[in-house]
Amino acid sequence: MQQYIFLLSESIILGIVQGIAEFLPISSSAHLILVPAIFGFKDGVAGNLFFDVSLHFGTLLSVLIYFHKDWLNLIKGFFSGLRKMKWESAEERLVWYIIFATIPAGIAGVFFEETINAVFHTGSPEALLYLAPSLTLISFLMIFSEKASKKENILSNINLTHAIIIGGAQALALFPGTSRSGITICAGLLLGYKRDEAARFSFLLSTPVIGGAFLLQSIKAFKESAVKSSEISLYITGTVVSAVVGYLAIKYLMRFLTNRRLHAFAYYRIALAALLVIVYFV
User: Fold this and answer.
1) How far apart are CA 60 and CA 275, in angstroms?
2) CA angle, corner 207, sides to 163 and 183, nearest 5?
3) What radius of gyration do the chain's Cα atoms show?
4) Whole-angstrom Cα distance, residue 248 to residue 16?
5) CA nearest to 253, candidates 154, 190, 184
6) Burial class (CB in 10 A: 0-12, 13-18, 19+), 88
7) Within the chain, where are the H helices?
8) Number of domains in the chain
9) pLDDT, tens digit, 9 for 90 and up, residues 133-179
């Protein structure tokens, strides 16, 4: 019973971390490497493929639920254009832009994900130290993009070139410490989009990537092992917690970015990078 309570606590903690860090621009990969190392999670649900699937399913649910009206309009616009074989409105074209913008992340995942995981997801002190440069670099990029952006463009004016540039930025999120939302919002700002508009496209763009990761991990998990009935409640807990916390994180960030800058997140990332370096050397 004591062991089960420990595992349940672990699933709740990791679900909270996944829900917050997947959508706030602070890097989910960095925190999912760092938190198990800090709490000493070993031989539990951390690193369990089925649990990873559960966390991704939870965050997929949260982004789909929060943006369900957007996706319904986008799907409606897509099929409307399909009937005419002509996509004229912004919503009719946006689905195609999201599809093309997702390609760079898909290619990067196929060719580099296993190599990157072999380097970063080892739990070694060196793996933690490697996170510091990307955490710091993206922090300065956030500050610079806020200063350089005109913040005039809105999402209905997006074109294919801008979508692919932001999609290329999303591919860089494969490196732990980068943050998918952070790098794509920065790219949107540098292209002149309003902060909340850049965030909205970032979340819409993340949906097929999170969905793809969930699908691929599911296939891999079922190939490599069977679901243990004793662990099902832990997977459900991780799904529910990451979904609820993820939804709240999206809601908070969308409100926050309406009239506030990314600087707070940048400073947090710099502090986290400094902490990693101090812990490693001291």
Assistant:
1) 30
2) 55
3) 19
4) 11
5) 184
6) exposed
7) 2-23, 28-39, 49-66, 68-84, 90-120, 125-129, 131-148, 160-171, 180-190, 195-224, 232-259, 263-281
8) 1
9) 999 999 999 999 999 999 999 998 899 999 999 999 999 988 888 99
